[in-house]
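Action item from last meeting closed. Structure (138 res):
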């Protein structure tokens, strides 16, 4: 068996770092307004891993809890030095860790399969036809 692929995700200042082992279960993009505020951009891109695929390498994240448009509670983990949100978990799914794809700074990272909350998609954003659009969370 091949060695699982290792990747590193980090915040803007490099203080908060985690490593992932193996491929994400799913790569998704989200146009909800919370992701717009998290990124300061038009949409977020996220990778879902099993908690046992993810290890904190350095830094002590702070937690910002918020509700999601789908009615779940998210614990957003961000670097207290530079403010970058690197990963989060859903309180309802403790076995899962979601990592902000931009924190890998890897242009070869697998592409998202879907865009959720597309009803909040900025009018000029166009995804390739391989990305399935969902008005809300499927
Ligand atoms: Zn930082
Ligand atoms: Zn979102």
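Sequence:
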């Amino acid at each position: 068996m091949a060695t699982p692929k290792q990747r590193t995700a980090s915040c803007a200042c490099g203080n908060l770092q985690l490593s992932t082992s193996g491929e994400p279960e799913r790569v998704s993009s989200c146009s909800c307004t919370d992701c717009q505020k998290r990124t300061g951009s038009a949409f977020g891109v996220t990778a879902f891993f099993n908690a046992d695929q993810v290890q904190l390498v350095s830094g002590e994240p702070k937690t910002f809890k918020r509700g999601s448009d789908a009615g779940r509670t998210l614990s957003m983990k961000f670097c207290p030095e530079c403010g970058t949100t690197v990963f989060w978990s859903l309180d309802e799914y403790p076995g899962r860790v979601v990592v902000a794809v931009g924190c890998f700074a890897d242009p070869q990272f697998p592409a998202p399969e879907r865009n959720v909350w597309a009803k909040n998609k900025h009018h000029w954003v166009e995804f390739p036809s391989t990305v399935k659009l969902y008005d809300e969370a499927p």
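Note appended to the action item: The chain has a mean pLDDT of 96.
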